[in-house]
Specification:
The complex is a heterodimer of chains A (about 230) and B (about 650).
Chain A: H1 2-8, E1 38-45, E2 55-64, E3 67-77, H2 89-92, H3 96-100, H4 105-116, E4 121-123, H5 126-141, E5 149-151, H6 152-159, H7 169-175, H8 186-206, H9 212-227
Parallel strand pairs in A: 1-4, 4-5
Antiparallel strand pairs in A: 1-2, 2-3
Helix pairs in contact in A: 4-5, 6-8
Chain B: H1 13-22, H2 33-41, E1 43-48, E2 53-55, E3 64-70, E4 73-78, E5 85-91, E6 96-97, H3 99-103, E7 111-114, E8 118-124, H4 125-134, H5 136-146, H6 149-165, H7 175-178, E9 185-186, H8 192-202, E10 206-210, E11 216-221, H9 222-230, E12 244-245, E13 249-250, H10 256-266, E14 270-275, E15 278-284, H11 285-291, H12 296-304, H13 309-328, H14 333-359, E16 367-370, H15 372-375, E17 387-391, H16 396-419, E18 437-439, H17 440-453, H18 456-465, E19 469-472, H19 476-491, H20 493-503, E20 528-529, H21 530-548, H22 556-565, H23 571-597, E21 605-606, H24 613-636
The chains are: A alpha/beta (about 230), B alpha+beta (about 650).
């Protein structure tokens, strides 16, 4: 699907030599969750249009040794010169002045990918984040993102079949009485998502799914089941 | 990897958010931002599903300092008496563990489990050690956490008091630390003149006469010297002829409070310190006073020698002041109730003596009894009279005759005590009531009836009368009465069972979901009753077990101690009950003090929300101990 999409996308810009030094992604494997490093990411964008909207902020935390490691955090606002306040400004609360004061997108993205290292990524509604990040990396650095993404929005209903059919992050946070310190702030949402992920991994272990490869397989099967009746 | 910093402006949002969370709780609310940020940046956040073990004894030395971010952690230890395990504590959001194990570099002694789905922040040991070294509030908190929970609060209270008063001392100071280096002593054959010279040279008010093994045989004080000189005795005779024999002594690890209490009780100014039967020191009234400005010995003496009722009435306000100061000095509730009881006893004795002077000797010996909290030596300042008279009589006719002789005295004593601030008993449990001015035989019959009949009234009666002791007069009759009572209760398992049911009547005000149960409406809305709901379960439980196992003491804490010694209750349980009882009583005394300061009527009703976070938590734990005691009674008596 990803590859198919890529074929129809416009010609890619020249590869930025700095991106060549970034580590290559590790495929998902069967190491136990407790030994798996992964990066939980949340993006704030100027809107939900996958082709036109811009990446405004990246927040990420790391799950390592089965815990969220507070010494590894990524938080960055990107400078997007053409950006103006829009409807989504009210949601993420990033003022145009903050965007103007942000970091140059190429440097921010390089720093972020260095932070990610070779670890897989996890996000809530991951396809959106994955796509926005892929596009930004391609446009800014000519870099092809190969890192696998896990989607908490799929893992949650998969691992909690007893819960009501929630869709949004807020519903899941409410279900587990989790609270983001500041909702719609990329870092705070990433942390809340990571907390949700810890709960989900705890459930996964009990269901005998103690590695990301198995989890991803189950998640893909679950997605197919969800999609098939509507097709 | 370092805390990443692309476009880092100030503190990262998640660090900031976590700091804000922690700032709601001690000690984090007292730490400066840089230290708190350091703490958060070095944390892991970990999830534990309900029932999952967090740390356990088998894990080896503890490697992390844990802060509960969300959820609840419970401590489980194997149950002492039954199979399975029981929850010994609960740790809620913002609270930390396991400090003692971490500082002691050992494994935890209690398994910590997630009571529900729980997130904990884990701070690695290295970062913990660094914060411990650099942050005074964090260090204080960690050190306080090492002793038991309740000690934490006591230390906090005392630290606060010490800070406020700039004083370095406490009533708990061991006497060893107060006694001057070398006790001044001499042998029995020392001529008095030489002994007095040595006292003079050493600037002391007493000399202890010891044998070859340094065992104290007597004491001679400046007060004795006055008497000797006034009597024109020879200064050349050996001191053994003039000394006070068998001087009172305490072990050197007894507290300043013990010494002050002994001096007050015995009207002495010097206490020998004896260890392994050897004299190791002497503590004088002066040594205590240089330490303790709270002049309780003086106060007791003034009460004891008050010439007129007016003086006694006036002294009551001094007692109130003394208690206030003692609370401020960090005295424990046990010390305060003991002291109040002692001073009250002095007042009662003095009132009786004044009445005897006023009305003349009745010509019949009698003992003045007290019941209830006074009988248990657990009085606070706000107390009503619960008293009676016991005398010896050959038969019913003589008993009646003596009763009629003594009743006017009793009524007068009740009346004067009321003037001194001991409220008249609403239930008329007073010696002036003919039903409570009885011969020993009549008392015995009355108590037997309580045990035999087991009606609601007699159960209520037993909860008052069975905590009896003598305040004034001969103690023999009362001791005999008590012996008979203990024998009867021990033989009557039905009565024990009823007492047990009675002891379960007042349930500790704990809700199913951890919070306190408070009154829903009326003037008492949002409050709970510290005495009825908190203390009474302990008092009732201790009484039942004491009566059933032949324990003669009437004080709740001494009953627990004795029950532990007799192995009726487990030592750990005994200690837990004692701490809990102590804390509830302390909370009650502080409540009374606040009410008095605001000119409000004194009640035992407390709004738990008025307590700080730590106190609330400990109060909850204390009530839980009451629940445990009740559960053990229910099991023991199969209720």
């Amino acid at each position: 699907m990803k590859k198919l999409l890529a074929r129809f996308l416009p010609a890619r810009p020249a590869v930025d030599p700095r991106s060549l030094r970034l580590p290559a992604a590790q495929p998902l494997d069967e190491r136990p969750l407790a030994r798996q490093r992964m990066v939980v990411v949340d993006l704030e964008t100027s809107g939900l249009d996958l082709q036109r909207d811009q990446l405004l902020a990246i927040g990420a935390v790391v799950i390592e040794d089965g815990a969220i490691d507070f010494s590894q955090q990524f938080e960055c606002t990107l400078c997007q010169p053409g950006h103006r306040a829009g409807a989504s400004t009210l949601i993420h609360g990033i003022a145009p002045s903050a965007v103007a004061a942000g970091q140059a997108p190429d440097e921010a993205l390089l720093a972020f990918m260095a932070f990610v290292d070779d670890s897989p990524l996890l996000a809530f509604h991951a396809p959106f984040d994955q796509h926005m990040l892929e596009r930004a990396l391609r446009e800014e650095l000519g870099y092809r993102l190969h890192h696998p993404f896990l989607d908490a929005a799929v893992l949650a209903p998969l691992l909690c079949p007893e819960a009501p059919p929630y869709r949004g992050l807020d519903e899941w946070l409410g279900h587990f009485r989790l609270q983001a310190s500041e909702r719609h702030h990329a870092s705070a949402d990433a942390l809340a998502t990571a907390e949700l992920a810890l709960i989900l991994f705890s459930k996964a272990r009990r269901q005998g799914l103690d590695n990301l490869a198995d989890l991803q397989r189950q998640a893909q099967a679950w997605r197919r089941r969800q999609l098939s009746p509507s097709l | 990897m370092s805390s990443s910093a692309a476009g880092k402006t100030a503190v990262l949002q998640n660090i900031h958010g976590t700091m804000e969370f922690l700032r709601k709780y001690p000690p984090f609310n007292q730490m400066d931002s840089a230290q708190l940020a350091y703490l958060v940046e070095h944390c892991q956040l970990r999830f534990y599903a309900a029932g999952e073990s967090i740390i356990k004894p088998g894990d080896g030395p503890v490697q992390h300092f844990y802060i509960v971010k969300q959820g609840q952690v419970v401590g489980e230890r194997p149950h002492s008496a039954r199979r399975g395990s029981e929850t010994t504590f609960e740790i809620a959001s913002g609270e930390c563990f396991p400090l003692a194990a971490l500082l002691g570099e050992r494994a935890t002694r209690t398994e910590h489990l997630a009571g529900e789905d729980t997130f904990c922040l884990l701070l690695g040991k290295d970062a913990f050690v660094r914060l411990f070294a650099q942050s005074a509030p964090f260090r204080d908190f960690a050190l306080r956490g090492v002793s038991s929970l309740l000690d934490q609060v006591n230390q906090q209270v005392q630290l606060r008091a010490a800070e406020n008063l700039g004083a370095q001392y406490s009533l708990d100071t061991p006497l060893r630390e107060l006694a001057p280096q070398q006790p001044v002593a001499c042998s029995a054959d020392t001529p008095l003149r030489d002994a007095v010279r040595r006292m003079h040279e050493q600037h002391v008010g007493s000399i202890v006469i010891v044998d070859d093994q340094a065992q104290p045989n007597g004491i001679f004080t400046l007060r004795d010297l006055r008497r000797v000189v006034a009597a024109g005795e020879s200064l050349e005779q050996p001191i053994s002829a003039l000394m006070t024999q068998r001087p009172f002594h305490l072990p050197p690890d007894a507290s300043a409070f013990d010494a002050a209490l002994a001096m007050t009780e015995r009207h002495i100014a010097h206490v020998c310190l004896v260890e392994h039967e050897r004299l190791v020191g002497v503590v004088s009234e002066r040594d205590l006073f240089s330490l303790q400005r709270v002049d309780l010995v003086h106060l007791a003496r003034t009460i004891r020698h008050a010439g007129r009722l007016e003086t006694l009435v006036a002294l009551r306000s001094d007692i109130r002041l003394l208690v206030e100061r003692m609370l401020a000095h960090g005295a424990s509730s046990t010390q305060i109730t003991q002291l109040v009881t002692l001073l009250n006893d002095h007042t009662v004795c003095r009132v009786i003596e004044l009445v005897l002077e006023e009305l003349g000797d009745p010509g019949v010996p009698f003992s003045w009894l007290c019941f209830g909290s006074e009988g248990r030596r657990e009085q606070t300042l706000h107390t009503d009279q619960d008293n009676g008279i016991l005398f010896e009589a050959a038969d019913a006719a003589e008993a009646e005759r003596i009763r009629q002789r003594l009743l006017p005295y009793a009524k007068r004593i009740n009346q004067l005590l009321a003037e001194c601030g001991f409220a008249l008993c609403r239930g008329n449990i007073m010696a002036g009531n003919p039903e409570l001015c009885l011969s020993r035989r009549e008392w015995t019959r009355r108590f037997s009836a309580f045990v035999r009949e087991a009606t609601p009234e007699s159960l209520l009666g037993s909860s008052i009368y069975f905590d009896l002791r003598v305040v004034w007069g001969d103690e023999q009759g009362c001791a005999q009465l008590r012996r008979q009572l203990l024998a009867e209760v021990a033989d009557n398992s039905l009565f024990q069972r009823l007492l047990a049911a009675n002891a379960l009547r007042h349930r500790p005000p704990l809700g199913r979901f951890r919070d306190f149960v408070v009154a829903r409406k009326g003037a008492e809305k949002d409050t709970l009753d510290l005495k009825e709901e908190g203390l009474t379960p302990f008092v009732d439980g201790a009484r039942l077990l004491a009566l059933a196992h032949g324990v003669a003491d009437s004080n709740t804490l001494r009953r627990f101690a004795e029950l532990v010694r007799l192995r009726v209750i487990d030592a750990q349980d005994g200690a837990a009950y004692e701490e809990a009882y102590h804390f509830i009583q302390q909370t009650r005394l502080q409540l009374h003090q606040q009410q008095a300061a605001q000119g409000l009527p004194l009640t035992n009703r407390l709004d738990p929300d008025s307590l700080n976070h730590l106190d609330r938590r400990i109060l909850r734990e204390s009530f839980r101990q009451a629940q445990r005691l009740q559960a053990s009674l229910a099991l023991r008596y199969q209720l």
